[in-house]
């Protein structure tokens, strides 16, 4: 599949998944871990039934997966607990919008290679744009609970920014060293962590018994869309480096935000407009479109 088609699939499937997740969180905010568990379970079953790789003799050695799986699982689950710590939603979303600069900094440090100035400027601009749009559409929640819990939630959010960047970098390293096997990686990163959910089994059971039929339908659609989203992201990671993948996912988050503002709130503000401008300009700069527009020198061979 071409890069263009893969990117389109990422935007379509992940935006649909985000839309359905927002509906679920509005109706059953305590079900985040249950949704994550079922997503992991469905992707694992699908990967096993339609596998194109050996479960017991994978292309990437088992021991090389452990760091990636630990990073992926912690990043996937940690953000679910931030809501319980009463971090204001506005601050929550603004911090999450900094994924692209975080990925750029982590890649810079790990590879010891200075990124292009256009990459840095583009990452910062798009993150500012997403932050402005999030702030403009956020419902401000008054501080609840203790100040210590609030601080802990912010620390978790900042930590998951780095962990998410390290996850993408580790994925890139494995693909470089052992070849590109997105289906295999998708299966193992979701299958191996499943036993860890046993630690919250009572919570998962209570939520499953309390969900209504309409919520189960939305949940089923969410799980399927998450599979296509995760598969598309893994496929994208075989075609681009971790920083560019994070950048594309940040743009996807911005589009989801605009859809949410139109469908759920219908209150587009000047901050959404400014955010959109920054995202467009940041994307243009990041992909170095100014450089591509320069006229190529004419040589005698062209005549």
UniProtKB/TrEMBL annotation:
Task: Give the record's membrane topology.
Answer: Multi-pass membrane protein
Q: Name where it's found.
A: Endomembrane system
State if Amino-acid biosynthesis is listed as a keyword: no
Kindly indicate where the leader peptide sits in this chain: none
User: Which keywords appear in this protein's UniProt record, sorted alphabetically?
Assistant: Membrane, Sugar transport, Transmembrane, Transmembrane helix, Transport
GO CC, sorted alphabetically, is: endoplasmic reticulum membrane; Golgi membrane
* Parts of the chain that traverse the membrane: 7-26, 32-53, 65-84, 117-141, 147-166, 216-233, 245-264, 270-287
Subcellular location, principal: membrane
> Which Gene Ontology molecular function entries are recorded, alphabetically?
UDP-N-acetylglucosamine transmembrane transporter activity; UDP-xylose transmembrane transporter activity
The answer, when asked if Membrane is one of the entry's keywords, is yes
- Pfam families according to UniProt: UAA
Superkingdom, taxonomy of origin: Eukaryota
Question: Hey, which family's this protein in?
Answer: Belongs to the nucleotide-sugar transporter family. SLC35B subfamily.
What protein name applies here? UDP-xylose and UDP-N-acetylglucosamine transporter-like
* Organism field: Papilio xuthus (Asian swallowtail butterfly)
Q: What is the lineage of its organism?
A: Eukaryota, Metazoa, Ecdysozoa, Arthropoda, Hexapoda
